[in-house]
Amino acid sequence: MQKISFPRLPIARSSIHHSPLRSRSYCAESLEHRIQQDVDRHLIFLNHSGKDDLDHIRQREKEINDVSELKGHLTLKIALLNAYATCGARIDAERKFIEVVRGVNGPPRSPKLWSHMLDCDLQHDDLPTAMNRFQWMMELDVEPNDYIWNAFCDYHEKRGQLMNTYELFSRSKYQPNRNCWLKLMWAFGKSAQIDAELMVYYKMKKLGHGLTPGEWTMLLDSLCTRRRVDCARSLMKQMRPSDFPHEIAWSTILDAQGKRGQIDDMLQLLDQMKGTIMPDDETWSVALATLKKAGRRDEMMAIFNFVKSELRSSKPWNIILSDKKGKLPDLMALFNEMKSSKATPDEFTWTIVLAALGSANKFKEMLGMFYDLKPKLKDPHSWTAVMNALGKDGQIEEMMHIFKEMRDTNTTPDHTTWAVILNAHGKAGRVTELLWLFEEMKEFMDPNDIMWTSILSTLGKSAIEDMLQLWNDIKNKVTSPHPWNAVINALAKEGRIKEMLSTLAEMKTTHTKPDVVTWCTIITELSRANLEADMQEVIQEARKQLPHAKTINHVIRVAKTNIASASKKGNKT
User: Fold this and answer.
1) Would you tell me how many other CB atoms lie within 10 Å of the CB of residue 61?
2) H/E segment holding residue 90
3) DSSP string over 495-549
4) How far is CA 179 from CA 114, 115, 171, 189, 209, in A?
5) Quick check: 570 and 537 in contact, CB under 8 A?
6) Which end of the chain lies in a sparser environment, N or C, as judged by fewer CB atoms within 10 Å?
7) pLDDT tens-digit profile of 189-205?
8) Are 39 and 70 in contact, with CB atoms under 8 Å apart?
9) Cα–Cα distance measured from residue 505 to residue 501, given in angstroms and rounded to the nearest whole number
10) Cα–Cα distance, 421 to 451 (Å, whole number)
11) For residues 46 and 57, is the Cβ–Cβ distance under 8 A?
């Protein structure tokens, strides 16, 4: 076997170095130093090797084994094992593992060695070998580290077998630490196993592992996301004052209760929150929006009037402003009050006010405010609100002037902007300009169903053959019933009953199913055409599809009245 050799070092001429004892000590120290340098050099390579370095690792092992002083080095053997395990070379890793275990000092007590082999077993989907190795660790009193516990958790999570990880954690001789239990709890929550997530929580509680406010927030959010609001409320009652979660958790529970219609419970929770921490603006926004949606405006205004002096965000103000769109004096009074408060109006605020002025036909005031704000407006919604008001009033030239200014300021029109422009031209009967704008729009974005509906509706009023030709080109692209309804409505108004029913039959074969508007249009037109047999067939099908639609039931009653009236007139004649 090749022996390690080093070049002779120059020795200074000094009386101390002429001593034989001193010379032997110097050589021993020099050899030990050189060996440590080689060990460090090999360790640097092995610890930084990757999955594609298998051939280089094997070559490095050969170099190590060629030096007698390095061949049996325990640290190098463990480093080689880890490098092989990282590469997925399980046979090589197992060979080094056996060498280490059969060493003169017996199996090592460090969990790092075992963790790499266990991870390698699990990567090769060999759970029985991994469990046998884990049991061997327990027999040798080697306490698993976080890496080992998490490796089992990751393995079982990928296979939907997280309960196996829970049983392993619970029955093991050594208990995982708090972070491992926490990882298992989040894994259950991620896979929507809420009962199991709560089981881990109570296990942690029994072991004395508490949750931080941020972790409480995540747990409550998980419960509310899975519609376990009552369970989240129950947990909050068990909390200590120091455990209470961040404001975001309160907002989550309030929002979840509002969506479930538990308004009184939501208000009770809000009072409980005020006794613990002061709700932030986001929490107030959730409560106000929920009450607005539920139609409980008196309670909404009571809460808003209670907190408005402290609100710094525009969001709660915007919720109240949007509720007063049909009451311009009240809206403007509230808007002026907002400007003198701690909250600063944002672009959404301006959009609400501009739209309200336009709806009330206050075009002079709307345009005056708009031109004052124009340098600040970067969001297309504010511009769109003004153009929508002008378009509905038939002021097409003024609308297009603002549209040009919008593009000159590098504010990009979105789908809604283009839909407003197209609708305005369609209602004004400007078919040529409409088609020209539509072609221009397609250079910047793909049309959505709203735009297709606008184009089809416009063509249906004056050029139905052009509409049908366009419809044949695009009907496979639409994803909502609105374009279908535009075609059916145009055919109905032209009295083309056979084509209307054919379009309905074709619609039913697609993924887009008829909605309330579809059925109402068909039933109304059949009643006008006095086609009672066809109408009864359609009514029967509509009731099966939408049994609780009040609009359809009303249309059916009107249609039957029309049929009865037509029948009486026929009898008289």
Assistant:
1) 21
2) helix 90-101
3) T-HHHHHHHHHHHHTSSS---HHHHHHHHHHHHHTT-HHHHHHHHHHHHHH-TT-
4) 20, 17, 18, 15, 9
5) no
6) C
7) 888 898 899 899 889 98
8) yes
9) 6
10) 10
11) yes
Burial class of 283 by CB neighbour count within 10 A (0 to 12, 13 to 18, 19+): buried
**pLDDT tens per residue across span 298-308:** 889 988 998 88
- Do residues 382 and 350 make contact, with C-beta atoms less than 8 angstroms apart? yes
User: Contact at 8 Å (CB) between 560 and 527?
Assistant: yes
- Angle between helix 213-225 and 194-207 (nearest 10): 160
Q: Which two tokens stand for residue 188?
A: 């259950």
Q: Give the count of alpha carbons within 13 A of 147, CB side only.
A: 11
Print burial letters for 449-478: b (CB count within 10 Å at least 16), e (below 16): bbbbbbbbbbbbeeebebbbebbeeebeeb
Q: Which amino acid is at 416?
A: T
How far, in Å, CA of 33 to CA of 45, rounded?
A: 19
Could you tell me which residues come within 8 angstroms of residue 408 by beta carbon, excluding any fewer than 6 positions away? none
Q: Could you write out the DSSP letters of every residue in 156-186?
A: HHHTT-HHHHHHHHHHSSS---HHHHHHHHH
**Could you write out the DSSP letters of every residue in 45-57?**
HHHT--TT-HHHH
Q: What b/e string do you get for 370-409 counting C-beta neighbours within 10 Å, with b at 16 or more?
A: beeebeebeebbbbbbbbbbbbbeebbebbbebbeebeee
Q: What is the mean pLDDT of residues 299-328?
A: 89
Q: Which structure tokens are listed for 549?
A: 């639609």
Which of 69, 68, 133, 56 minimizes the C-alpha distance to 101?
133
List the structure tokens of 314. 């525009």
Torsion angles phi and psi, residue 7, rounded to 5:
-65, 145
Whole-angstrom distance, CA of residue 39 vs CA of residue 56: 16
Query: Nearest-5° angle of CA 292, CA 296, CA 302?
Result: 90
d(CA 74, CA 275): 61
- Sign of the CA dihedral with 147 first, then 149, 152, and 157 last: negative
- Single pTM value for the model: 0.60
Q: How far apart are CA 83 and CA 515, in angstroms?
A: 62
Query: H/E element holding 225?
Result: helix 213-225
Distance, in Å, from the CA atom of 319 to the CA atom of 292, rounded to the nearest integer, reads 8
> Tokens standing for 385?
């609100």
What's the rounded Cα separation, in Å, for the pair 329 and 327? 6
Instruction: Find, among 191, 241, 192, the residue nearest to 216 by Cα.
Output: 241
